[in-house]
Amino acid sequence: MRVDRIRLLIQFLSFILMIYGGIVLINLGRGLPALTCVYSKYSAGLCFLYPLQRFAGLPFFLLLGGYGILLLKYMGMFILWVIVLNTAWCGWVCPIGFLQDLLSKLRAYMNVDLSRFSWLTRDRYKSVKYILLVLLILLPIGIGNSFFGLPKLTDDLAVPFCQICPAKPLLPMFDGNFSHIFIDFSSGTKIVLSTLSMIILALFFTASFLKRRFFCSYCPMSALLSLFKKTSLLSLKKDGRKCTQCGNCSRVCPMEIREIADERERTDIVTQDCMLCMRCIEVCPEDNALRATFAGMTIFPSTAKGFLKRQGAFEKV
Amino acid sequence: MSEKQNKLNRVQKRIKRHLSMSVREILDKMDEDRTRPKNMAYFDRLFNAFIEDSKRIVKKENGQKVVGTYCILVPEELIYAAGAVPVRLCAGSYDTVENGEDYLPDISCPMVKSAIGFSAMPVIPLYQSCDLVVIPATCNWKVKMGEILKKFVPVLMLDLPRIKESENSRKFWLNEVNKFKQELQKLTGLKINRSRLRKAIKTIQKAQIEVRRFEKVRMSQLPVIQGQDALAVMNTYFYDHVESWTEAVKGLNDELEERLCSGKTVCSSSAPRILLTGSPIIFPNWKMPVLIEESGGILVADEFCTSNRYLHDMVALDELSMSDMIHAIADRYLLPCTCPIFSDTLDRRNRISQMSDDYQVEGVIYHILKGCHPYDAEMKTIEEMLKDKGIPQLKIETDFSPEDVEQIRTRIEAFIETIKGRRR
Lengths: 317, 424
Fold this sequence. Notes:
The structure holds 2 protein chains of 2 kinds.
Chain A: H1 3-20, H2 49-56, H3 60-63, H4 66-85, H5 88-93, H6 95-109, H7 119-124, H8 128-144, H9 160-164, H10 167-170, H11 188-210, H12 220-228, E1 234-238, H13 248-252, H14 259-262, H15 279-282, E2 290-294, E3 297-301, H16 304-310
Antiparallel strand pairs in A: 1-2, 2-3
Helix pairs in contact in A: 2-8, 6-11, 8-12
Chain B: H1 3-32, H2 41-52, H3 54-57, E1 66-69, H4 76-81, E2 85-88, H5 97-100, H6 110-120, E3 132-136, H7 140-149, E4 155-158, H8 167-188, H9 194-219, H10 227-235, H11 242-262, E5 273-278, H12 287-294, E6 298-303, H13 308-312, H14 322-334, H15 346-358, E7 363-369, H16 373-389, E8 393-398, H17 405-423
Parallel strand pairs in B: 1-2, 1-3, 3-4, 5-6, 5-7, 7-8
């Protein structure tokens, strides 16, 4: 079983669903843990970050009523989705993740060497996604409410993350809508945010081409998901005793997670960047050293035989 | 002919005769065993050829270059991809040790002395006919060995980081592997391209399919092959071309798996199951495995760089770009290596612990060659780990000489009796 191929197929299907699902009236609600953009016309569901920022922007007293219940409803749906699939949303569903994987495939096809972050760089920027997450909640709160008599923030800062998220200009393109690619000169804030958005878009194409899943290292959705990952049914387990530290797993990991190879004590190995693509299990040559579990049951273990099969060692040279 | 030359010739002939005799003795003893798998004959022939006709081993068809290697840290995939043939030169012959003592102090390890002895005097042509000899800078003796061997053969040293956990050392080693690739291309004049490298990786993976099968057979409760034969299988990989070796092991595996079904064992299945680890056992230094199995134990597992560890870890192809394949090869040779020259002993502890579970080991014999300090230094931590698991360990410090055989026999017999006693 080549999981990487199955994953690509599922990613493709969910991409179609998330971009065009609305045409056939599919609606998965407004609490999806994936960057399915509100600006794309026919999307089958909505990225949870959008309602989160919208509701955070409401004055406090409004949240005590019906709006609060609505927010709780979306949040409940979000948590339910995460409990079922954990961070597999990033690896298997997210359309932005899929586009990055396609860029990587293109790079590999063009025989361009992949780039990796140095360990120091990776560790240094680990906190960026959490900072973004905090900002995307705090800034809207400042719009809806006034603190210590200070003036409220400008309305132009509404849904701040969406304004710089690469999904906003990118995904509507698949509906034929290119209108989000521009710099908005209507106000100072807008100029800054839309310029930032364009820079991030350019960076998205160049950096994700050279480095696998470049954007995911900074995605606040991944930060939000990682808060709930302990509660999830789907998980990745490691048996440190069976591991020979050969490093195959961390080398092929699209997120360049070192812990997957270096960790020897902890059994639950879903780290903050992990997207459960299961590539590590595929390249692990030790029986049961790594395995994916669902509700405690092993659904995909690493095996020496499976490793050799996927490597094509049984085929004729 | 001068007096000196004459003397040298006599010494050379004597060593050759002795070597032949000691190899014959081992092979004859193996032959007596009626329960031996039939497919072992292929490996016996290879051992025989090693002494009698090592020209055949290094037959240079279409001008193929021969690359001699020391240690398991030399990436063989690259050698095959460059169109050359690797031959591992780590030596285990007592007869050439004396020769090597002219170059290194007495306390240095017998393996290095033996290898230098072979290189300094043309006892068997294998050691002189290499076009390049690659030595990773592992232990101190090997580091100094390069300089000595330079007098006799072209030598390439591979620098090796000692702390494999750090990012710097991994990058450093990656550079060394790239350097090795360049040197090989210079040697053979053949460019290592992606398709050749991929083919070489797959060829070795094919051998590893059989190695894993072989491991599975040995893990079973029924002893269907003797430990010395298993060591022989892995040891002959030194001199054989990987493809013909793979075919032979495949045949052996088929026979052994059939034996598992029919229940034909080489000894009583209640014989104490022993794991042998420590300094490498290299043919014809067959002292330890023979003694263990003559004393009533069965050598079910070994943790040596010359056998179990040699082909266990595998290169994982991911992206098929040159840089990614080289990265995969570099990682496979450095990261899982449990050689005690690395600072961290946890990998080796884990490995032995896991192996003693997998092979249902009842006792561990820790073999230390006199002068092999890294293995000696690691012994205590391994002993403590085994103590926690309730597995007894016996430390045997020896060299290649046959003098202490009977003393060791007594100790091993006592050890095996204790294991039997513990069962009751």
